[in-house]
Every structure is written in C-alpha cells, then in structure tokens.
C-alpha cells in the first residue's frame, strides 16, 4: 500500500512560521519608544511641507529622530528635546528678534523654559519648540537649515542696519 502525501503538515508548518515571524515583529516593535504626541499645525497638509519633512536629519546634536503621531511633525530626543511642526501661521512683520542661520531666517520668542523658533519669509512656516538649557539653539538651527531651506523664501528679516538704509519719507 502506498503512502499518500497529504498537504496538511506542510500547511501547518508554513502557518506556524508565519505566526512566529509575526510574533517576532510585534515583539521588536513593542521595544521601540512610543510615538511622540504632537499636535499638527493648521496647515500641516500643505504639500509644500513634504520636501522639508523627507529631508529632516536623523539626529540633531546627540538627539535622535523619533516617530510622531501627526502629519508634518517631528521630534528629536527621548524625552523630546526638539519638536518641529510645519504649517504654522506665517509670521508677519515683527519687532521680535530675528536671526539668520545658514541662509534661513528665524523669529525667536524666548519663553521660560521653552523657546519658539519660527521660519520667517517662508510659506508654510515651520515652528520649532526647544529648551535652550537642554540643547543649543545654534546646533538646532544649523542642523535644520538644509531641510527648512526646501521651502523657498519670499521675504527676509530686516535688521537695524538695513532700516537705516531705507529711504526716509519726506
């Protein structure tokens, strides 16, 4: 009498392998940090945010990029040292301090302890929240300059020096 080969045993082996691979993947994902809860900006769906978001650095200083739970947002460090949101309100003319780092203008609002840095002259605007006691603002702005530059500038900051050169009304 011949033995018949029934497909059931190989089916069970294949199913067990798939289940094992799935369990390992779920286990390895469970070891990761949870996504950072960041509220998306009102214009986060603006397609102009995309080129910047895909070019963000993997690290700012020693702080590693983490996953967030909102569109057009990013966070670095655990706990988060830097939070980025694209699509925030575009700042108009202001007397707040404006600095230029690697060709990118930023309006700085110094809070206690968190500073808010917003791109100036770029639409949509990008906002960074950071604590200067925990990470250097110079490092943050330098490391994000290339990515922020993916959104073209339409205006620039004007300092006291430039104001002195403007024609005076008669």
What report would you give on this structure?
With 170 residues, the protein is α+β, with helices and mostly antiparallel strands. The protein contains four helices and eight strands, in the order ααββββββββαα. Strand 2 and strand 3 form a beta hairpin. It is globular. It starts with 7 loop residues before the first helix and ends in a 5-residue tail after the last helix.
Search tags:
170 residues; disordered N terminus; alpha+beta; 8 strands; 8-stranded antiparallel beta sheet
What's the topology here?
Elements: H1 8-30, H2 49-53, E1 59-60, E2 63-66, E3 73-76, E4 82-88, E5 97-101, E6 104-109, E7 115-119, E8 125-130, H3 137-148, H4 160-165
Antiparallel strand pairs: 1-2, 2-3, 3-4, 4-8, 5-6, 6-7, 7-8
Largest sheet, if any? 8 strands, antiparallel
What percentage of residues falls in helices of 4 or more residues?
25-40%
Mean pLDDT: 83
* Morphology call: globular
Rg, nearest Å: 24 Å
- What is the H/E string? HHEEEEEEEEHH
Distance separating the two termini? 114 Å
Summarize the model shown.
With 170 residues, this protein is an alpha+beta fold. The chain has helices at 8-30, 49-53, 137-148, 160-165; strands at 59-60, 63-66, 73-76, 82-88, 97-101, 104-109, 115-119, 125-130. The chain has an eight-stranded antiparallel β-sheet with strand order 1-2-3-4-8-7-6-5.
């Amino acid at each position: 009498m011949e033995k018949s080969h029934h497909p059931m045993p190989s089916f069970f082996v294949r199913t067990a392998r798939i289940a094992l691979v799935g369990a390992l993947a779920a286990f390895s994902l469970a070891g990761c940090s949870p996504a950072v809860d960041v509220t998306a900006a009102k214009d986060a769906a603006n397609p102009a945010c995309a080129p910047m978001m895909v070019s963000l650095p993997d690290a700012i200083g020693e702080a590693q990029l983490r996953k967030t739970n909102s569109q057009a947002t990013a966070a670095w460090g655990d706990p988060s040292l830097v939070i980025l949101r694209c699509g925030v309100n575009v700042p108009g003319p202001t007397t707040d301090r404006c600095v230029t780092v690697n060709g990118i203008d930023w309006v700085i609002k110094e809070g206690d302890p968190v500073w808010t840095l917003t791109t100036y002259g770029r639409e949509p605007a990008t906002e960074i929240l950071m604590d200067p006691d925990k990470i250097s603002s110079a490092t943050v702005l330098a490391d994000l300059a290339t990515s922020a530059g993916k959104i073209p500038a339409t205006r620039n900051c004007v300092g006291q020096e430039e104001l002195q050169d403007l024609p005076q009304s008669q």
